[in-house]
Specification:
- It is a single chain.
- This protein is of the alpha/beta class.
- The protein folds into two domains: 214 residues, Up-down Bundle (Growth Hormone, Chain: A); 242 residues, Rossmann fold (3-Layer(aba) Sandwich), CATH 3.40.50.150.
- It is 54% helix and 14% strand.
- The chain contains 15 helices and eleven strands.
- Strands 7-6-5-8-9-11-10 form a seven-stranded mixed beta sheet.
- Helix 9 links the parallel strand 6 and strand 7.
- Helix 2 packs across helix 5 and helix 3 crosses helix 6.
- The protein is elongated and about 90 Å long.
């Protein structure tokens, strides 16, 4: 192979590897720190700095070491250091996962910086490749212009490196082994730049060590010994755990519980049961209201759906869950009410918009950690929900609020109130969960109180319903609508509001 072609192949492979490392690092870090914009900005910004340093060093290095084997050594070293990223970063992230629930911000911040620094050396080395290769091309073929084709090769490789981890490597192998695969690929790629067989031995030995690390390095997430399932999907780390007879669905390394199931326990005293309160806002009655069709956006493991069927056994449920791995886990581990259920792997907003069904209840339960997808809390979204509700239909939304001063809860409440005629809030006891109820008809707390009075003394109705209504009666409020911005598709700063909520909680933390 001609030197020019070998150089182009190296540049292409390193371009692919640099973006693959960036995408894989983003997934690895977001499993603990979430995938919000501030985290993405920190990752991308630091990597751009590393690449810039590498660009500056690359031409200077080649000015003194202008041979193809020296270029290959840069690739080899980048591959070795890439293999070490998960070895160093995983213990740090495991510590961060413990410290985040303790609101230990200094330690969490230092760990975050430390994890970003583990990316520095391999990314600096990869940043050196293109300017170093350009120097070699100009020395070998001074009469030809090589910059354009080198940049094209690097950019094309970067395009491939953006897609491969997200759509294949991470879902298939997980982020840890994806790093090891990228590192092994770089070590193998370095062989292209060798000029003698004598140099081959060291490269192949390091490749063998990388492959052994790939085979034997533990790929399971930290603290996952009790997991029934642990898999990295296109979107997140999906974990199903067994604890004291409870089956629990957790996403990423966080401490939150997305879904819960126990074969002998009905009431989990969380936000899921409050779907049962929704039908009782319309009017006072001494018999169960009719509930025909329900949509659940952010279905997860289907806890709310199971609770609903216990009281309304004839109901039809359309579930929307964007993550196919979560859907598979729900079917495998959470005893779904399959006869009542149509479960789609789809974005909740898109699925609801495409549905032709009129719903008596629309539940939105897409909150993860402190954040909610922006497209599920804007005026435009609430108008879609409003148009899909029946005459007596109610929307309820599970929202995370970590303090009495909760800007995100206020913004969502204010935005919902701009679309619906009536809105109510309920804080779930002993939790950071708020439930927002919204409807297109006038209602009051007194209607819920009267319905509870009618049902609480009767033996005909499940205790699950009566306990749920009791919680609503004791905590339901019709709040004053705070002034401030309305969330729209064009302007929905939900991450900033969520961060402000978190900072308020930190300031009040003892």
């Amino acid at each position: 192979m001609k030197d020019r072609n070998r150089i182009l192949l190296i540049v292409f492979g390193c371009g692919a590897s640099s973006m693959a490392i960036e995408m894989t690092a983003s997934r690895m870090i977001s499993n603990v720190y979430s995938g919000v914009n501030v985290v993405w900005a920190a990752i991308i910004g630091s990597i751009l700095i590393y690449l810039a340093v590498g660009n500056w060093l690359g031409s200077r290095y080649m000015a003194k070491h202008s041979t193809l084997p020296n270029l290959a050594r840069l690739v080899l070293l980048a591959g070795v250091l890439t293999c070490l990223i998960p070895v160093i970063a995983r213990p740090l992230l495991g510590l961060a996962a413990v410290k985040i629930p303790q609101v230990n911000i200094p330690v969490v911040s230092v760990i975050f910086i430390g994890v970003l620094l583990t990316l520095s050396l391999p990314m600096i080395l990869l940043g050196m490749i293109t300017p170093a290769a350009l120097t070699l091309i100009r020395i070998a073929e001074p009469q030809k212009e090589g910059a354009g084709i080198l940049l094209a090769a690097s950019t094309t490789g970067s395009f491939l490196g953006t897609l491969l981890p997200i759509f294949f490597l991470i879902p298939q192998f997980g982020s840890t082994r994806t790093f090891l695969i990228i590192g092994s690929f770089l070590i193998l790629l370095s062989v292209v730049g060798l000029s003698t067989k004598k140099q081959l031995g060291t490269h192949l030995l390091l490749l063998l060590l990388a492959l052994l690390l790939l085979i034997f390095f533990p790929a399971k997430p930290l603290n996952s010994n009790q997991d029934l399932l642990s898999v990295e999907s296109t979107y997140q780390l999906v974990r199903v755990q067994q604890e004291n007879g409870f089956t629990i669905l957790c996403l990423n390394e966080g401490q939150g519980i997305q879904s819960i199931y126990h074969p002998e326990i009905e009431n989990y005293y969380g936000p899921w049961e409050q779907i049962l309160t929704a039908p009782f806002f319309f009017s006072v009655s001494d018999s169960l209201p009719e509930v025909k069709n329900v949509a659940i956006l952010g279905f997860a493991g289907g806890t709310a759906a199971r609770q609903l069927v216990k009281v309304f056994p004839e109901v039809g449920i359309d579930g929307f869950e964007i993550d196919g791995e979560v859907v598979d886990a729900a079917h495998r581990f959470f005893d779904l009410p399959e006869e009542n259920l149509t479960l789609q792997t789809n974005d909740g907003r898109i699925g609801l918009l495409q549905s032709n069904t009129e719903y008596d209840i629309v539940m939105v339960d897409a909150f993860n950690a402190h954040y909610i997808p922006a497209n599920l809390c804007t005026q435009e979204f609430f108008r879609i929900v409003s148009s899909k509700l029946s005459q007596r239909g109610v929307m309820l939304m599970n929202i995370g609020g970590t303090s009495e001063n909760h800007p995100l809860v206020d913004a969502i409440l204010r935005t919902a109130a701009s679309v619906f005629e009536s809105v109510f809030t309920l804080q779930i006891p002993d939790s950071y969960n708020y439930v927002l109820y919204a409807m297109n008809f006038p209602s009051s707390v007194e209607i819920i109180e009267q319905n509870y009075a009618n049902f609480s003394q009767s033996e005909r109705y499940p205790s699950l319903l009566k306990e749920t209504l009791s919680i609503a009666v004791n905590g339901l409020t019709k709040p004053e609508i705070p002034s401030g911005i309305l969330l729209t598709d064009d302007h929905a700063p939900v991450e900033r509001l969520a961060d402000l909520t978190l900072f308020n909680a930190i300031r009040s933390y003892p």
